[in-house]
Design brief:
This protein is of the alpha/beta class. The protein has 7 helices and 7 strands.
Amino acid sequence: MKKKEEEIEKYCKVNKINKTKEIHIYLNNMIAEPYLYVDFLEQLREVNNNDSVFIHINSNGGYIDTGIQLINGIENCKGKIITILEGAGHSVASLIFLSGKDKRVMQYSYMLCHYYSGRKQGKGQELEAESKFESKFLKDFFRKIYCGFLSNDEIERLIRGEDFWFSAKQIKRRLKNS
């Protein structure tokens, strides 16, 4: 138990004067299975209106389902969410970055935006039903998250399979204009 408390203290600083917290969470690996992010999500649920959560991102992406759960957690968090792109922000990591209320971009960071990829298995009718549902659901999801950062034309090209790469300078310009 003590080790877990030390780990939390390492990433969570409490300002004892005004009782606000600063929590630092690092997404520096592939976004993997959802069960690995339970502590991350619990921290988001426990913050107050005056607390700040800094999400440091340097990731080549990963599981879209996990990303969706993290984005839901970010959107429902009572505290101020600051996403900081510190290196790579590829794929689902770009979606997580863009979900922050306050977005910061470090000088040598970069981002890749593209449509999802994946694999399925099951019976034919199940695969068809799932594919039909996911197609509509994920198109709407990508349109919502990328709206303002990418133009409507770019979003539609992304859905058709085009990749978009951005340097830190390009990201900052797009965020300023969104």
